[in-house]
Amino acid sequence: MTHSPDDEAKLVMLYVTVPDMACGKAIARSAVSHKLAACANILPVMTAIYQWQGVLEEGNEAVLLLKTRQTLVVALMEHVVNQHPYDTPCIMELPLGRINGGYATWLTAQLQ
């Protein structure tokens, strides 16, 4: 059985780019231990291409995915910004569609 976001407190995911796995792990551990995120996943390597101060940049980064309730997003974003080494970190809230029931229940329980 699946749950839609209206079935329980609305669940969301934050997409955060970080310079490397070590940074991602540090932010993830802190967010989960403070119960701002129920779970974190880190994708170790991606290529980022962007303009920074008028210069085309390209480099490797990691992606940190943080699963949480919508009511915790502002606090979680502030927490990430305070620990993030970038001047302008990428932190985006992604709405979630359907989630399998057992996982949604577990996720919600971790945030209480």
Automatic annotation (TrEMBL):
GO biological process terms held by the UniProt record: response to metal ion
Highest classification ranks of the organism: Bacteria, Pseudomonadati, Pseudomonadota, Alphaproteobacteria, Rhodospirillales
Protein's organism: Thalassospira mesophila
Pfam families, per the entry: CutA1
GO molecular function annotations of the record: copper ion binding
Family of the protein in this entry: Belongs to the CutA family.
Designated name of the protein: Cation tolerance protein CutA
Regions crossing the membrane: none
